[in-house]
Design brief:
196 residues; mainly alpha; two-stranded parallel ribbon; 10 helices; 59% helix; elongated
Length: 196
């Protein structure tokens, strides 16, 4: 709709700014910048532990991360993690949740997120869908946590405040045992993947 003769006079230069997916080397410095901005925005110092930072940057630089909205996606991801983390420290669990949220938003959920697939892989058998949904979430949180205690704190955050005994590790250990599982079995594949 622009007048063709006027456009011909001003259309001298054309610039193409590559999207974030084509400039993955810009993600790491901008992660730090966005973390500082998020801290200023929420009015609290926010840090990210090394394992969590490496996990996020590994995902961010992989083909799985489409960065459809470019820096808006990165800004939103860092702000969400900074806002939702406990005690102003972003951990592996926060990163795992954010990666899952980004993938779902981009429409590219991982195959293991299909109902029952992760449970069947770990148990080697199928179970009722009702139990599979809960167990899949427990396995996902375990794999995103650095210890049994951390996973227990995340999984029992609400009910632990109402209990006199707060042994979250023991509660989680007993829950896994109901399915013939233990911490080592549940997190084995996640550790092997991280080592490669």
């Amino acid at each position: 709709r622009f007048r063709e003769d006027l456009l011909a006079r001003i259309n001298l230069w054309t610039f193409r700014l590559p999207g974030l997916a084509e400039r993955r080397e810009d993600i790491e410095p901008n992660f730090d910048y966005e973390l500082e901005r998020a801290a200023a925005r929420i009015g609290q110092r926010v840090t990210c532990n090394r394992a969590a930072r490496e996990a996020f940057l590994r995902f961010a630089g992989s083909p799985e991360a489409s960065w459809r909205s470019n820096f808006r996606d990165l800004n939103a991801a860092v702000l969400r993690m900074a806002t939702l983390c406990e005690g102003g420290r972003i951990g592996r669990g926060d990163v795992a949740e954010e990666i899952a949220r980004l993938q779902a938003g981009w429409g590219g959920a991982r195959p293991e997120s299909a109902p029952g697939a992760l449970v069947s892989e770990v148990l080697g058998r199928e179970i009722d869908q009702f139990e599979a949904v809960q167990l899949e979430e427990v396995i996902r949180v375990c794999r995103a946590s650095s210890s049994l205690a951390e996973a227990g704190r995340r999984l029992f955050a609400v009910s632990r405040a109402q209990r006199s005994s707060r042994n979250d590790s023991d509660r989680l250990r007993k829950y896994l045992l109901r399915f013939g599982l233990d911490w080592r079995m549940v997190t084995k594949e996640a550790r092997e993947t991280a080592d490669t």
